[in-house]
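User: I'm new to structure prediction. If I give you an amino acid sequence, what do you actually give back? Let's try with this one:
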Amino acid sequence: MQERLQKLIAQAGVASRRAAEDLIKNGQVSVNGNIVTELGTKADPEKDHIKVRGKLINARLRRRENVYILLNKPKGYLSSAADPEGRKLVVDLVKGHGRLHPVGRLDYNSEGLIILTNDGDFTNHVAGSKKIPKIYEVKTKGIPTAVALNKLRRGVLLDDGFKTAPADIRELKPTDKNGWYEVTLYEGHNQQIRKMFDAVGHSVVKLKRVAIGAVRDPYLKSGMNRSLTKDEYDQLMGKTPAKKTAGRR
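Assistant: Good question. You get back a string of structure tokens that encode the predicted 3D arrangement of the chain. For your 249 residues, that looks like this:
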């Protein structure tokens, strides 16, 4: 059966679908020896020889199984499958599953839950969804006023011109010098939470993602990983109603 090339490349685990589109546009994909640059091009892996950067991917498509890994990312790891600067990568923490890529991002100095997979369709759905909440525990320098917090809840204009969507912010127990908050976002602007609190004069000193949709795991230690359960996968893909909690307890 014919399918779009970018979908086949993502299914082969070579790259996410978005990255596969770039490979096609850059002339790095060929079908039956002919370079393809049109994104709408389809191919049948049972009949056509599909190459990416000169390497045949048909065998990968035949033997590949989808993998979904939940990782508790430590600070000091880049949420990427490659880095020209040679920094440590989240994919370095997960071995034995072939080539994986992170679903969305969690910035270098942040920690917490991130999913790694070889399924481009899953990545596009979860990373692009505005219905899957991402929940964070946030420690700030100083304690923002109630006025400042309400401004963040309504949405705030950042220095880069981006206006944030309304956010759920629940106050946790503060210390004498630091505020603690649970922040729920439905969007993924780069370093959004840090920029939000910067906008009200209180920098973030610690940021940890504790949930992706219904997926939680308070017992997963930093740097460790496990496979998503079928229920977690189904909830993220909208196949079953999301529960309030998920993961091991």
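You can read the tokens as a compact description of the fold. Here is one thing that stands out. The domain at 68-129+217-236 is CATH 3.30.70.580 (Alpha-Beta Plaits).
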